[in-house]
């Protein structure tokens, strides 16, 4: 893990500002969705740019929305073959 040496305080509403340098390097623009994970073993909070993924295989490529579920085209084809 890269240490960039930036310290931020949590405000009274529990918010933390992610510095623009970090957002730019991760490709996180205004209003972008960010995933938040808790690593209990190492007592860390992990932020990651949200990447939509297939509900079945977790692929991040060729994602479509079908009946409020995200599915990749490969899984759509496999489902069609099973019928």
Short précis:
This protein has 83 residues and is α+β, with helices and mostly antiparallel strands. It has helices at 20-26, 73-82, and strands at 34-39, 44-49, 63-66, 69-72.
Write the SSE topology.
Blueprint: H1 20-26, E1 34-39, E2 44-49, E3 63-66, E4 69-72, H2 73-82
Antiparallel strand pairs: 1-2, 3-4
Structure description:
The protein has 83 residues and is an alpha+beta fold. It folds into 2 domains: 1-50, Pemi-like Protein 1, Chain: D; 52-83, no CATH class. Helix content is 20%, strand content 24%. The protein has helices spanning 20-26, 73-82, and strands spanning 34-39, 44-49, 63-66, 69-72. The model has no long low-confidence stretch (mean pLDDT 88).
CATH class of the largest domain: Mainly Beta
CATH topology of the largest domain: Pemi-like Protein 1, Chain: D
Regions with little confidence, pLDDT below 50 for 5+ residues: none
**Structural class designation:** alpha+beta
Would you identify the CATH architecture of the largest domain? Ribbon
Number of domains: 2
* Principal-axes shape call: elongated
**Total helix count?**
2
Defining key terms:
24% strand; two-stranded antiparallel ribbon; single chain; 2 domains; elongated; alpha+beta; 83 residues; Pemi-like Protein 1, Chain: D
């Amino acid at each position: 893990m890269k240490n960039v040496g930036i310290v931020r305080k949590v405000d009274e509403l529990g918010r933390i500002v992610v510095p623009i340098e970090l957002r730019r390097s991760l490709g996180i623009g205004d209003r972008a969705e960010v995933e938040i994970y808790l690593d209990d073993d190492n007592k860390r909070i992990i932020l990651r740019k949200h990447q939509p993924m297939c509900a079945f295989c977790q692929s991040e490529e060729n994602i479509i929305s079908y009946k409020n579920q995200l599915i990749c085209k490969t899984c759509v084809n496999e489902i069609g073959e099973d019928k």
